[in-house]
């Protein structure tokens, strides 16, 4: 069964599309509550996102990020870490 897991690994372009699709899938729920989530960048297994609007000060934002991360892991078939960033995207 491990062979199936290896086959599920996506090409870099397909991987980015899966990440965008997952964020787009949860976006309507966030927007309904006055917030949003934007993809900032992907660095290996770290996916940097920016919460905006009502999500910035929401006490449930960590649960939202955990849910997005779990969905990304499920869809990608690999462990990834969702990293929230504040303010404008910056390159360090």
From TrEMBL:
Gene3D superfamilies: Fe-S cluster assembly (FSCA). Residues 19-81 form the NIF system FeS cluster assembly NifU C-terminal domain. InterPro entries: FSCA_dom_sf, NIF_FeS_clus_asmbl_NifU_C. It comes from the Bacteria. Pfam families: NifU. Coiled coil: none annotated. Signal peptide: none annotated. This is NifU family protein. It comes from Methylocystis borbori. The lineage of its organism: Bacteria, Pseudomonadati, Pseudomonadota, Alphaproteobacteria, Hyphomicrobiales.
């Amino acid at each position: 069964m491990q062979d199936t897991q290896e086959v599920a690994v996506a090409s870099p372009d397909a991987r980015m599309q899966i990440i965008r699709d997952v964020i787009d899938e949860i976006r309507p729920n966030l927007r309904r509550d006055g917030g949003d989530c934007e993809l900032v960048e992907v660095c290996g297994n770290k996916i940097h996102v920016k919460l905006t609007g009502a999500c910035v000060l929401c006490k449930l934002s960590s649960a939202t990020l955990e849910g997005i991360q779990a969905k990304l892991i499920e869809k990608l078939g690999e462990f990834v870490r969702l990293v929230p960033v504040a303010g404008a995207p910056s390159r360090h």
